[in-house]
Amino acid sequence: MIKRITILIASLGLALSATAQQSTASAANEPQPSQTSQTIVTLKGGQSFNFTDLLAFGKSRNDMLPLLKSQTGLMAVAEELAMTRALVVEGERLNVLNKSSDGQPQSPLDNVYALAVYRKIAGVCKAPDSDKETRRFFDENPQAYAIPAQVQLERIIMPANAMIDNFTTEAWLALQMQAVSGGYARFEALLARAQKAFPDLGQGDLGWMLLQGQQPLIKALMAAEPGEVLGPLRDGDYWYLIKVQAKRNTRNPSWEEVRVQAPRRALEYCRETQRERVLTDLFQRYEVKINKSAIREQAKTFSIY
User: Fold this and answer.
1) What mean pLDDT is predicted for residues 144-151?
2) Owning domain of residue 81
3) Which of 62, 87, 208, 239 has the smallest C-beta neighbourhood within 10 Å, fewest atoms?
4) Residue 210 and residue 150: Cα distance in Å, rounded?
């Protein structure tokens, strides 16, 4: 069964990136002013941020830079921008003083000030003090230790701006997938052709991937059966076909399996749920809205780098 998904793949640990990436975009790929002025994030009171603001925010933080290469990554940056602004506003409401400079936020998206506010309102997470406390946490929170479903994947990767057999790579992949769907071609034959045409892009096995998150691709992989193919999919400057080779279902490990890592996992789980609680509360209080359709459209029009 073939599923055509018109989404961009995020930075999901799929090793989908090609061996070499372009460091700068061509002039034709640069966003135009009319594109970047579109509102992406809004908050209560008429506050808004456009796509230019989104890119500037992402480029200002090293941990955000890899996310600027795909649609779902841009969604994550937009969420982080919105949370940063909401934290700054919340800090001003609570009169939180930053120990740096004069104690006030230095910009609407002051990351240092936002972090200080987050630490004040989120509380402190601590690992369990003893093996007994850790075991009790394990018994009361099995979801914290559940091992997510996994899939073993193969990929075909082709540059979006290339040609193959007198077709664009997008058109070629779409036509070949129709042939696979009708039983007239096999994925293995397409993979062999891709290896011959683009041998330096790392065709084939991607290994095992944990299925975590709510992104459309993750949901599609969760629903897929071994042997199913997803695509064509676009991520940045490349088109992909992804084949599900095998699957492992979600399972709850035994105490002995996780005993050594259990205290650290308890701390991680506290921080994960803590952030989700703070984000939900702030987004409701400040009526945060993210224009996902605008991000999807922007992501189709140009490369970030």
Assistant:
1) 93
2) 35-128+269-301
3) 62
4) 5
Cα–Cα dist 282/293, whole Å: 22
Task: Report how far residue 21's alpha carbon sits from residue 236's, in angstroms, rounded to the nearest whole number.
Answer: 10
Q: What is the pLDDT of residue 224?
A: 86
State how far the alpha carbon of 163 is from the alpha carbons of 49, 159, 166, 197, in Å.
38, 8, 6, 10
For 202, which DSSP code? -
The tokens 């579109």 sit on which residue? 38
Cα separation, 53 vs 267, whole angstroms: 34
Euclidean distance between CA atoms 46 and 87, whole angstroms: 16
pLDDT at position 80 over 90 = yes
**Token pair 């749920």: residue:** 273
Let me know if residue 264 belongs to a domain: no
Q: Are 229 and 242 in contact (CB under 8 A)?
A: yes
Instruction: Specify if 28 maps to a domain.
Output: no
Q: Is 155 a residue whose pLDDT tops 80?
A: yes
Q: How far apart are CA 272 and CA 217, in angstroms?
A: 22
